[in-house]
């Protein structure tokens, strides 16, 4: 089995290396002890102080003090189609980092789908996007590893056709039946017959099923596109300010990109990759 390597790395952030290392250790334990046996995944999670330190085969979860457009947080792909995530350093950032690491490990490229019966009566069989943390992503359903808050995640039984006694549907057992969406969470699926995307969201007083009129995935990157689309719906339901319109078009790079340097000279540096990541971060974070 090929081991998957994830890096927890800072970029323009006040987080200390001590805190970053402690969180990386907790996420490593969660990935190895909790996620791995359930989803049959071998992985490592390691802390790095800067982008230049990243080995070439690591997928980065990048921690920044200010992401810009709030909808830029979450999953993205670099210029070579490799996954990376942006996490804003704020209260509760460890829950978000755990969420991103777990979803990256289970579905690195954000487009894996699982067939099952639609939650909407009459739709028949549909395909669900595999996002293992979204239905129970609220802090209420989190748990602790090494005293650090981490995200709940669902198991493969989440897509079972019916509920069975003694079956675990999420790690914390907060989810108690297949395809259940808890307050603060959501579930996305594609109706192939009508060529429509749908979501069940629970951002208000009760769950709501909605056809995503006007939604279009870019370059097959389903998770990134749906995350951005869903943040608008969440903002409307909760009364928060809506995210600014963002995109992956050509960005204003001058303020973000800087020449990479290996300050210590003790470790191998990968300046070109760091530069490319900074350019992509600028693209997805820019304001229109």
Describe the structure.
With 288 residues, the chain is of the alpha/beta class. The protein has four helices and twelve strands, in the order E-H-E-E-E-E-H-E-E-E-E-E-E-E-H-H. The strands form three sheets. The chain has a five-stranded mixed sheet with strand order 2-1-3-5-4, with helices on both faces.
Overview in brief:
The chain has four helices and twelve strands, in the order E-H-E-E-E-E-H-E-E-E-E-E-E-E-H-H. The chain is α/β, with parallel strands linked by helices and 288 residues long.
Structural class, by secondary structure, is alpha/beta
Shape: globular
According to DSSP, the number of beta strands is 12
Percent strand equals 15-25%
Q: How many H/I helical runs?
A: 4
What Rg do the Cα atoms give?
19 Å
Stretches where pLDDT falls below 50 for ≥5 residues?
243-266
Series of secondary-structure elements, N-terminal to C-terminal: EHEEEEHEEEEEEEHH
Helical content class: 10-25%
User: Quick one: biggest sheet?
Assistant: 5 strands, mixed
> Between the first and last Cα atoms, what is the distance in angstroms?
43 Å
The largest sheet has its strands arranged as: 2-1-3-5-4
Average pLDDT, rounded to a whole number, is 85
Question: How is the secondary structure organized here?
Answer:
Layout lengths: L3 E7 L6 H23 L3 E6 L9 E7 L9 E4 L5 E6 L4 H14 L6 E5 L7 E5 L13 E3 L2 E3 L35 E6 L4 E6 L6 E4 L10 H17 L32 H15 L3
Parallel strand pairs: 1-2, 1-3, 3-5
Antiparallel strand pairs: 4-5, 6-7, 7-10, 8-9, 10-11, 11-12
């Amino acid at each position: 089995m090929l081991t998957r390597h994830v890096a927890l790395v800072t970029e323009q952030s006040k987080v200390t290396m001590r805190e970053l290392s402690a969180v990386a250790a907790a996420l490593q334990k969660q990935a190895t002890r909790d996620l791995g046996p359930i989803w049959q995944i071998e992985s490592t999670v390691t802390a790095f102080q800067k982008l230049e330190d990243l080995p070439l085969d690591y997928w980065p979860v990048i921690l920044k003090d200010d992401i810009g457009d709030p909808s830029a947080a979450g999953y993205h792909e670099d210029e070579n189609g490799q996954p990376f995530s942006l996490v804003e350093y704020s209260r509760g950032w460890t829950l978000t980092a755990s969420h991103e690491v777990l979803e990256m490990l289970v579905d690195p490229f954000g487009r894996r789908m699982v067939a099952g019966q639609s939650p909407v009566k009459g739709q028949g069989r549909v395909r669900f996007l595999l996002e293992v943390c979204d239905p129970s992503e609220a802090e209420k359903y989190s748990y602790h590893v090494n005293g650090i808050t981490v995200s709940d995640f669902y198991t493969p039984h989440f897509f079972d056709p019916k509920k069975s006694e003694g079956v675990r549907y999420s790690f914390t057992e907060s989810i108690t039946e297949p395809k259940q969406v808890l307050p603060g969470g959501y579930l996305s699926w594609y109706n192939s017959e009508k060529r429509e995307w749908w979501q069940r969201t629970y951002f208000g007083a009760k769950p709501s099923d909605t056809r995503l009129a006007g939604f279009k995935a870019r370059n097959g990157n389903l998770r990134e596109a749906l995350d951005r689309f869903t943040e608008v719906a969440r903002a409307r339901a909760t009364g928060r300010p809506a995210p600014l319109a963002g995109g992956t078009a050509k960005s204003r790079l001058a303020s973000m990109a800087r020449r990479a340097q290996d300050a210590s000279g003790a470790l191998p540096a990968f300046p070109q990759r760091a530069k490319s990541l900074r350019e992509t971060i600028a693209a997805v974070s820019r304001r229109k």
